[in-house]
Design a protein that fits this description.
- This protein is an alpha+beta fold and 87 residues long.
- The chain is built from 3 helices and 5 strands.
- It has one domain: Nucleic acid-binding proteins (OB fold (Dihydrolipoamide Acetyltransferase, E2P)).
- The protein has a 5-stranded mixed beta barrel.
- The longest helix has 10 residues.
- The radius of gyration is 12 Å and the shape is globular.
- The chain starts with a strand and ends with a helix.
């Protein structure tokens, strides 16, 4: 699920707002911690945990060019990008 990062909590956790309108806490896995810097207002791909709906893992962070392509293809809702500017 595509989400926008709203806050950096610390301890490798971020707070995200998802396409389905829910706010979740996401964990940054060890293999992404040093390779990919995640900041507020970034668009990320979230893998929701099967046993707990309000949490998940960050799987990927999209760049600006990839974000534009997602909007052009109709995968990313432009309303999520509007939410991005409210921080």
């Amino acid at each position: 699920m595509l989400c926008v990062v709203t806050d950096i909590i610390g301890g490798n956790y971020v707070k995200v707002f998802c396409q389905d309108g829910k706010e979740r806490m996401a964990r940054i896995p060890g293999k992404l911690r040093r390779r990919m810097w995640i900041n507020p207002k970034d668009i990320v791909l979230l893998g929701i945990w099967e046993f707990r709906d309000d949490r998940g893992d960050v799987l990927y962070r999209y760049t600006r060019d990839e974000k534009k392509k997602l909007v052009d293809m109709g995968v990313l809702d432009p309303a999520l990008l509007e939410y991005e500017g409210e921080f």
